[in-house]
Amino acid sequence: MQPLDITRHIESLVADRLRHAAPAVVLLGPRQVGKTTLARRLAASWPQGATYLDLELPSDRRRLDDAEAYLRMQAPKLVVIDEIHRAPEIFAVLRGLIDERRAAGQHFGHFLLLGSAALDLMRQSSESLAGRVAYLEMAPVNAPEATAHGLPTDVLWSRGGFPDSLLAASDGLSFTWRQDFIRSYLERDVPMFAPRMPAQALERLWTMLAHQQGGLLNQSQLAASLGVSAPTVVRYVDLLVDLQLVRRLSPWSTNAGKRLVKTPKVYVRDSGLVHALLGLETLDAVLGHPVAGASFEGLAIETLVHSLPAGSRAWFYRTHEGAEVDLLIERGGQPQMAIEIKRSSAPSLERGFGQACQDLSVQQRWVVYPGTERFPLRHGAQAIGLADLAGVLRGGA
User: Fold this and answer.
1) Where in this chain does the record put each AAA+ ATPase domain (predicted)?
2) Which terminus of the chain is more exposed, N or C, with fewer CB under 10 A?
């Protein structure tokens, strides 16, 4: 497969925030997702010029021995600091520098900060940069981005959205890259972010979650399988969520009078990592494995969640009586859209979906499937392709 310069939708959003909305932007995302490529491209075209620092490099770390003096000298340029979680003490320095630039009439576009650990980084930066920072999340390549560059959704689904995996010259090289990626996280990032957490146990949990893709989080069952306590499992899952490798999808639980499932569902966020953890090297291997449907569901959920307009949130809905919606989009406390996800070219709907839509009084009802045509289904729903529905959501529908 030929290398492609895939345009990422978030790039224009980062640029807009820096130019018009915030002195600093924190761009969060797992390693190798494309943050550095995006930042370098943005820096190269920044009107006032830019300075790029990678805190994994000792030479760049040394430039910040006197961070206040060095960063003050860079004004009015945009300063990009990669791997910012390696120097959390810089946040306090940035606050004073941002205020200085504001006093000089420079209100936006001071710093672009890149990091991998979402919750920890947000906590550190919010303590020092309250009111001065915008947070954006960069996910792996999604269906609309792949489709726009001629990459079939099945290739994206099989290989996942990390660019080096997606654009590898062969399935074998893609699979090897993903195996190395998993090993790197376990050997390098886990010790950095959680020094006392055994990487082998975390790998086993990660693999269990891949086997149970899209299942309810059963802490007791996972704890028994790992030989650890339930609180320990929670800490392990918290770390994978924090590193943006796992998603906890919360249940909608505000319907009075309904016996609702209140346990979150858990997804390994990148479908390619699901397949690598399960040893599935090719699309044929994925299609022949029981995880296929749940894996496609995870791909769809990631694409759709990252296509939501501002102010919308994603949930799932399930009652003990069998009413269920895979993805429920809410805005202003009111359910707006019910989405079912089917890995079938001829999707059909169960009665539980219709009952859930009735419970929630949702009129917009969609069924995501692997095709591209739209056609009506029962319960007032319409079948739609994944990239098309992402476009509907981006339009604010």
Assistant:
1) 21-114
2) C
CA distance 315 to 343: 20
Q: What DSSP string describes 208-226?
A: HHHHTTTEE--HHHHHHHH
pTM above 0.85, yes or no: yes
Topology (CATH level 3) of domain 9-137: Rossmann fold (3.40.50)
Task: Please report how the helices 219-226 and 230-242 are oriented relative to each other, as an axis angle in degrees rounded to 10.
Answer: 100
Comma-separated ranges of CATH 3.40.50.300 domains in the chain: 9-137
For 52-111, how does the pLDDT look when each residue is reduced to its tens digit (9 = 90+)? 999 999 999 999 999 999 999 998 899 999 988 888 888 888 888 988 888 877 777 889
* C-alpha gyration radius of the chain: 22
**The pair of three-digit structure tokens given for residue 397, joined into one six-digit string:** 């529908």
Please choose, from the candidates 284, 314, 271, the residue with its C-alpha nearest in 3D space to the C-alpha of residue 143: 271
Write the Ramachandran bin of 185: left for phi over 0, alpha for psi from -120 to 50, otherwise beta.
Answer: alpha
Q: Tell how many helices (H) and how many strands (E) occur in the chain.
A: 19, 14
Q: What pLDDT is recorded for position 126?
A: 62
